[in-house]
Amino acid sequence: MKIVRRVGATPRERGSASGQSCPDIFELSDGSFAVIGREATMELDPELPPDAARADYERIVVITRETLLRAKKDIPDA
Questions:
Q1: Which residues make beta-bridge pairs with 38?
Q2: Residue pair 60/41 in contact by the 8 Å Cβ criterion
Q3: Do 51 and 20 form a contact (C-beta atoms < 8 A)?
Q4: Per-residue pLDDT tens digits for 12-62
């Protein structure tokens, strides 16, 4: 599995002065997406709706609204 491309604007384009420690979204060679975000599993796990579940190896991460909205144009419809 490899990163194929960034989806959306770079952290610098979203206003990060250093370009580090910022949420990001990447498309992977298998068609999946990888997300860099703030780890929030402990905080949000109790908030999951009854029909949602998280495996022990999965984590809940948070990205900013701007990160997702600026990535929208790059996310394929199918």
A1: 62
A2: yes
A3: no
A4: 887 776 656 688 999 999 999 999 999 999 999 999 999 999 999 999 999
Q: How far apart are CA 14 and CA 59, in angstroms?
A: 24
Bridge partners for 27 per DSSP: 5, 33
Global pTM reads: 0.80
Can you read off the two tokens belonging to residue 5? 């491309």
- Supply 16's token pair: 């990060």
- What is the SS3 string spanning the chain? CCEEEECCCCCCCCCCCCCCCCCEEEEECCCCEEEECEECHHHHHHHCCCCCCCCCCCCCEECCHHHHHHHHHHCCCC
Q: Which two three-digit tokens encode residue 47?
A: 């908030």
pLDDT tens-digit readout, 62-73: 998 988 998 988
